[in-house]
Amino acid sequence: MKKNIVRQVLESYGPCISSELAERIKRQNPSMSSDAIRKMISRSTDIGKLPFLRFSHNRRFIYLKDDFGSFKFWRALKKCMREANSAYSHAILSVINNGGYLKVKDFGIVSGSPIKQAKHLSYESVLKNLLSAKILRSVYIDGVGDCVLINNNIANDISIFNMANCESFFDKPIFELIKAWLRNLGIVAFNQIKTKYDGENNPVVGSFEWDITAPSYVSPLAEYSSDGLIPGFVVCDFALGFNRNEITTDAADTFIRKVQMTKSSRTNQRIMFVLFARRFEKNAFNKLRSEGVLAITIANAFGNKVDESLARLSKVIQGTLSIERHPDELLQMVKDLESISGENGNLRGYIFELFVSSQICNFYGYGNVRINKEYKINGKHVEADVVLETNDDIYIVECKNVKTLPSMEVSLWMKTRVPIINSYYKSNNPDNKNIHHRLWVTGNIYPKDINRLDEFKCNNKKIDVDYLFGQSLDDFFYQKKQVFNLYRKVISPDYKKGQIPDFDL
Fold first, then answer.
1. Has this prediction a pTM greater than 0.85?
2. Within a domain: 8
């Protein structure tokens, strides 16, 4: 009978904090003592108590076991977590606010927990415990890498996987813009900016990981001591993906947590905290500014044109804006973004990858296309710019939109990318599809590197490798006149090659 009362209340009102559950039972059964109600709840076999997440006075989040992972479970938990203000609540909300998933590599940045700090849980411990409690589940998303997902029974994994692939690519041009912004301000050491894409590990200042860090030698961040000039730091996170366009109060609180804990552990070092977003909730913006955080929108930093261009880029990546139908619009987008990042940035490289991903099926047949697909094998990993998988073949294309390809990039392709990807497919190719490696360069290759590539091709006859650059790449696209015209407009707007007819799209 007593167990039925607990079930009845939870079925009627949904999951809640233990004190709230007790109050509801008391209202329905006024004659019962508080002690009897507590014992009845603790002895119930119908309920679950969320581990790790504790509220004041040792209260717990309680739910019917049947409701775990349901919509009402997560709706109630999200509401309660704002009160908890714990490492776990910040971590869970960060995953929820990111669309229900997060790359494991980003967990230390976004979760609000440190690498290691006295009296605080590390983000690795938080992640381990949330996985153990089955609040999060671990998945490997092809082309993105290791991720964690909110463990619910209403998520659309396919939709999340597609979004993760798109967002993984979208990140990189944004980093180019923010790096350019920091450099243009002149407040950081020009060549010492570190981002999460610059190596295996994320950049670190204090006890936390950040999206971007850079030392600063300008006053008042830097200061003199007996040992000379000690630099300060600029640390920057951003929320500019498809699911993190707006900084909510929850996200602001998590960033503020990082700020406060960093300040408490780095009393002798001056740090400027920066948070980028497309938009800020009014309350979130005010809270950040009151904490001394530089809260910046893309429009504030770069103007409305660049903000609109990023929105167009987002549509192109998601496939809602066609490159074929809007080449002039895409070209304008490139020019707008280059006005900030400069022609020497990687933006044109990203655009070339988008172009190849949209057109490759015209040459090799229709199939599944991935951008920046990640390959892991035997502790080694590489990314492939564009991968096309048809019924019988897999084409892996390295895309380089440069005037002259550095010799180092040639070596990297021959000695690292091709061998690792080939090794991967030896054990991950159940249909025994034919593997083809391609290096496409819009500009030139040094004569010595051409000889190296020819030798590589000759010595690896069991591997289908080939390369196209400059004129030979132009001729390849020229096979499809519509593709060539698009290539010339978007990728090579300053193209000069004699009398070539301008084909109408």
1. no
2. yes
Residue-level length of the chain? 505
Q: 51 preceded by cis ω (within 30°)?
A: no
Q: How confident is the model at residue 501 (pLDDT cuts 50, 70, 90)?
A: very low
* Cα dihedral 345, 348, 353, 354 sign: positive
Strand ranges (DSSP E) for 142-270?
145-150, 194-195, 204-205, 208-209, 212-216, 223-225, 228-230, 232-239, 246-247
* Domain termination residue (choose one: 290, 309, 343): 343
192 and 54 part of one domain: no
Indicate if the alpha-carbon torsion angle 500, 398, 464, 431 is positive or negative. negative
What is the amino acid identity at position 474? Answer: D
* pLDDT confidence band for 337 (50 / 70 / 90): confident
Diameter of the chain measured on Cα atoms: 95
Residues 389 and 481 in one domain: yes
What is the rounded CA–CA span in Å between residue 111 and residue 131? 14
170 and 314 co-located in one domain: yes
DSSP β-ladder status, 59-64 and 47-55: antiparallel
**Model pLDDT for residues 55-79, shown as the tens digit of each residue:** 777 888 999 998 988 888 888 888 8
For residues 280 and 293, membership in a common domain is answered with yes
Whether 292 and 389 map to the same domain: the answer is no
CATH number at residue 419: 3.40.91.50
* Residues of the domain holding 339: 157-343
- Structure tokens belonging to residue 283: 């309350």
State whether 266 and 325 are in the same domain.
yes
410 and 434 belong to one structural domain: yes
pLDDT tens profile 90-120: 999 888 888 788 899 999 999 999 999 888 8
In the chain, the N- to C-terminal Cα span, in Å, equals 75
Structure tokens at 344: 């020497």
- Cβ neighbours of residue 63 under 8 Å, at least 6 residues apart? 10, 14, 15, 47, 48, 50, 73, 76
Distance CA(58)–CA(388), nearest Å, equals 54
Question: Nearest-CA neighbor of 439 among 475, 403, 464, 462?
Answer: 464
